[in-house]
Specification:
It is built from four helices and four strands; from the N terminus they run ααβααβββ. With 149 residues, the protein is α+β, with helices and mostly antiparallel strands. It has a single domain, classed as Hut operon regulatory protein HutP (Hut operon positive regulatory protein HutP, 3-Layer(aba) Sandwich), CATH 3.40.1510.10. A four-stranded antiparallel sheet has the order 1-2-3-4, with helices on both faces. A hairpin with a 6-residue loop joins strand 3 and strand 4. The chain starts with 9 loop residues before the first helix and ends with a strand. The mean pLDDT is 90. This is Hut operon positive regulatory protein. Belongs to the HutP family. Antiterminator that binds to cis-acting regulatory sequences on the mRNA in the presence of histidine, thereby suppressing transcription termination and activating the hut operon for histidine utilization. InterPro entries: Regulatory_HutP (IPR015111), Regulatory_HutP_bacillales (IPR023552), Regulatory_HutP_sf (IPR036482). It comes from Bacillus seohaeanensis.
Amino acid sequence: MVNIVDQNRIGKSAMLLLLVDREEEEWNREFNELNWSYCTGKIGSMDSQKVVAAIETAAKRSGLVRGDLYREMHSLYHAIMEALSGVTRGQTQLGEVLRTVGLRFSIVRGTPYINEEEGEWIAVALYGTIGAPIKGLEHETIGLGINHI
């Protein structure tokens, strides 16, 4: 087994979680070695608010962020919005303009810098499809957001 999680690339690691098929045990081993944490999930919606809410809920339930700490939720929100902006090509509207998404997401929290004073960072990666709300009229899309905590 080759380690593919790069200790200095939190965004790359978040994307690999979505794009590389591996056993969860392998991911756990690599992220544990770095003392990083992560979670993954899926969301399909015509409402960008539901996408944000699903990712925030997953992050809180998995213990990646604390809902009672503003700085953690604020950082997560900005990472989500940056990733969503990539998925939607800068226009975060979905249902209002007759678009729907089917996405897998990953969230990674860790310390990608050698200097410990740089602190923790969070990355949100999205991969899936976007298009008209008609089966078969969608195409692939991808987005990544990274923010400091």
